[in-house]
Amino acid sequence: MPPVEATVRGEETEGLWRAAVTAAGDLVYQWDLATDRIAWGGETEQLFGRARRRTPLDGKSFAERINAEDQSRRSRVLAEHFAGGDDYDVEYRVRADSGEFNWVHDRGQVERDGTGEPLRVHGTLRRITRRKLNEARLEYLANFDELTGHFNKLRLREALEYALADALRARRSGAFLAVGIDSLDRINRAYGSELGDGVLVEIGRRLDRCLRTNDVVGRLGGDRFGVVLNGCTAAEALHTAERILTVVRRSAVDTAAGPIHVSVSTGILLFPGQAHTALDAIARAEGALLKAKTAGRDCAALYELTEEQERGFRDAMEIGEQVKTALKEGRLQLAFQPIVAADGGSVDYYECLVRMRATDGRLVPAASFIPVVEQLGLMRAIDRYVLDLALEELTAVEDVRLGINISGLTAADRSWLRALNARLRGRSDLARRLIVEITETAALHDVEDTARFVQAVRELGCQVAIDDFGAGYTTFRHLKALTVDIVKIDGSFVRGVLDSPQNQLFVRNLLSLAKAFNLRTVAECVETAEEAEFLADEGVDLLQGYHFGRPEMLPPWRAAPGVATARRARPDGLAGSPSIVAG
Questions:
Q1: Helix/strand/coil (H/E/C) assignment for every residue in 519-581
Q2: What range(s) does the PAC domain occupy (predicted)?
């Protein structure tokens, strides 16, 4: 049997190359920079049009076909490549003879002469219009309701969170309306869901006509819309609700089955006096909407607070102001509690716990203000501040590991993740010594979102722990989805564990679940040597509690030689928070 030919002749190689390029639908090019001439290989008609004479044969005429919005980006990437920077890899739009624009992925490499000057560019163009359209559609669906074109529930909630924060900051009021279409289910049963969808779309259009340009409309789901009214009084909110009722009932909705008369009901919530978070605002407005429907539909109902609730809100607002002032003046500080190895007692890492220094110098424990801060929607600012303080400690001291707690709102906050990414970029030495803790109940609120957050944090090199493990009924499926590194057994199962067979059984089950995924475990609230010994014998890896150390404002490394405390200077001249500097 004759040997198989391992190589092909030059002309056959060129034939194979041309066939592969044609089959892929790509174009290859060689751009001579001295003459500005471009030589193309492949089917240029697919990108530029069928008139070969109009195919751009020089850099100038090709550049004229590039979408004006994309030219600067392409020029910048090309210049950086010529200067010896990154690879030439850029996406932009090119105009065809028909006037339509096609997206292309342009990849190439410069060829240089003996002195290093660019001679010519060799590259490929691949059409990616279909991919770009798919990406644009996915981005649209991530923000907008596909049926009505309004914000989806996620974006509506974000807009409401922003309006709440702005109202608190500017000391002004606003309102959130939950608008429900009356008896839409009957329309769907009588005429079909397609006609019912048409009614939904028309009601959305009528809502748009009733509102100001700075108001926001979104789809809450089913037969309900949500409306954010920025900067309005209670009287103005009621007037807007009445206008919506009137506009909807005034004329029938034209459908394929003929005109159908429709009405809506509205629930009104005023903020920030009646709610401090978007989730609370939506839930209470929908409660008021149910009240309106119960009252006979085609009417509006206002969410009302009891006298006790109003007093609680006033107290919460006062505490919130104290926390915001402390944050501005650098009076939020960290206390550090050791977490030790169960098999030897050596410190594995320290958990950072936030404390507030009152104006008279007293330390205010977190339990006195964190619940209120969460209600007021200030946890994102607190979590960002704690991150900055913890990273200062890690930067100053090379052999310490720290854990920080973040709220469920922060776990869904892309800006916090961007801040973490920016601070840890190129600093793997910091990332590997930082542990981010998120409570189990927050993690289970939206497992998919939390899983994406956990993955992003771990890709930076940090570890992630689930705090209060066992309080939220984590399942095998949840742990598999979340891919965390550490689980911290909730203290309620550790306290009195020696005297409670139920707690002992629960701890063993939680340990078995954690070990199945090779996760390290921490037992919280360990207060006696006997509890520590029992938990270590059961297989807990790390222990935390008063038996090993209370949270301390002055951790051991601050007293180490060559390390001193300092006050961080603030641009506004106020005293900063304590930080660490190498002495």
A1: CEEEECCCCCHHHHHHHHHHCCCEECCCCCCCCECCCHHHHCCCEEEEECCCCCCCCCCEEEE
A2: 88-140
Place of tokens 């006696």: 528
Q: Which helix (H) or strand (E) holds 143?
A: helix 129-143
CATH entry, 10-133, from 3.30.450.20, 3.40.640.10, 3.30.1180.10, 1.20.1260.10: 3.30.450.20
Q: Given this structure, which CATH class describes domain 144-304? A: alpha beta
% pLDDT > 70, the chain: 87
Per residue in 336-395, pLDDT (tens digit) is 999 999 998 999 999 999 999 988 889 888 888 888 787 666 788 899 999 999 999 999
pTM to 2 decimal places: 0.53
**DSSP H stretches of helix in 192-273:** 193-210, 234-250
The full set of domain ranges for the chain reads 10-133, 144-304, 314-582
**523 strand-pairing partners:** 489, 543
- Write the CA distances from 270 to 66, 193, 211, 305, integer angstroms: 50, 34, 17, 10
Domain 314-582 classification at class level: alpha beta
Q: What is the pLDDT of residue 439?
A: 79
Q: pLDDT tens-digit profile of 491-515? A: 989 998 999 999 999 899 889 988 8
Mean pLDDT calculated for residue range 248-264: 94
Return all residues near 578 (Cβ < 8 A) that are at least 6 apart: 333, 565, 566, 567, 568
- How much is the CA Rg of the chain, to the nearest whole Å? 31
